[in-house]
From TrEMBL:
Residues 13-244 form the ABC transporter domain. Signal peptide: none annotated. Keywords: ATP-binding, Cell membrane, Membrane, Nodulation, Nucleotide-binding, Translocase, Transport. This is ATP-binding cassette domain-containing protein. InterPro entries: AAA+_ATPase, ABC_transporter-like_ATP-bd, ABC_transporter-like_CS, DrrA, P-loop_NTPase. Gene3D superfamilies: P-loop containing nucleotide triphosphate hydrolases. It comes from the Bacteria. GO terms for biological process: daunorubicin transport; doxorubicin transport. One of its GO terms (cellular component) is plasma membrane. It holds the Pfam family ABC_tran. It is a peripheral membrane protein.
Amino acid sequence: MSVSQTNTAQPAISVQNIIKRYGDFEAVKGVTFDVADGEIFGLLGPNGAGKSTLIRMMTTLIPVTSGKAIIAGYDVSRAPDAVRRMIGVIPQALTSDIDLTVEENLSIYAKLYDVPKATREQNINELLEAVDLTKWRNAQTKTLSGGMRRRLEIARGLVHNPRIFFLDEPTTGLDPVSRVAVWEMLNNLKNKHHLTMLITTHYMDEADRLCDRIAIVDHGKLVALDTPMALKANVPGTNVVEAQFTNESTDWLERLRQLAGVMSVESQSAGMYRILTSSGSLTTMQLVEMTASRGETIKSLSVQNTTLDDVFVHYTGRALRDEQVKAAGFIMPPRPGMQP
Ligand SMILES: Nc1ncnc2c1ncn2[C@@H]1O[C@H](COP(=O)(O)OP(=O)(O)OP(=O)(O)O)[C@@H](O)[C@H]1O
């Protein structure tokens, strides 16, 4: 079926049993999901899970091996130009021209996308305001901080008024304050421009705060898809107890596993144990009793609700902090005048 009409009742993005093969290697193995109009949809997964490959297919950068991706009503394989007019794309790498000013970067893109002259200036002014760069419009891009440059790239991706915005790790390499500023900005932009957003991220707190629904991808397959709250509620064990003992006994792992409600126990560094349990209070009570009856002491103890990190571990078998090693390796390019 060739879909050529834009229809607001249909999903903004519809991916149907999509497959991508690189030679003999299947990087995406039949993934299906819809993204509703106006939704912020997160794609999470370990390194190499297939997130970028999925985004590249949805944004027409690489051909689909089989299956379909329908973006704003257009099939990426049959109507790639129409898809490109409907989408804005922020890739992982920063691509604005550092020798141009902020405004020149936006203006060149607007011309590339044939934004009519009459609306070009107004669009640029509004976007500069939205990303809080109005007073930097004449600054050379190379003088901007990492966070400001990322905001410029986001404004540039919206200069032709796309309906659907794809962001591949929009806050990687930013400090926590800049990350929160980008989240707020994306939320404001979404509401003001009625955008649909698809975001990949390595940061669980980002996905939790920003996304209406989250898809977890692993080894090229979709392994979970729901709202952050439902994902957390559906993971066995609703609490995480972290405990550290003064005595480095080798049988803690086994003894902790036998406490009431315990689903799994993970031994961490510095004698810390992370316990996933269906009843934080019951497990904690028994843990305290058991420790006291053996004449041992607890060095530290905390009880937390299940986080998206726990969801991630549950579905992928890997902790996100392993993934963050790679993410932390990305460093924003230095700007002139910055201290090393
Ligand atoms: N052009 C290519 N040729 C061959 N294999 C590729 C190519 N691009 C990606 N792959 C492989 O496909 C798999 C999925 O890669 P992809 O970049 O989509 O993962 P990702 O989830 O985006 O990972 P990351 O978080 O590291 O960006 C990986 O095993 C990768 O090595």
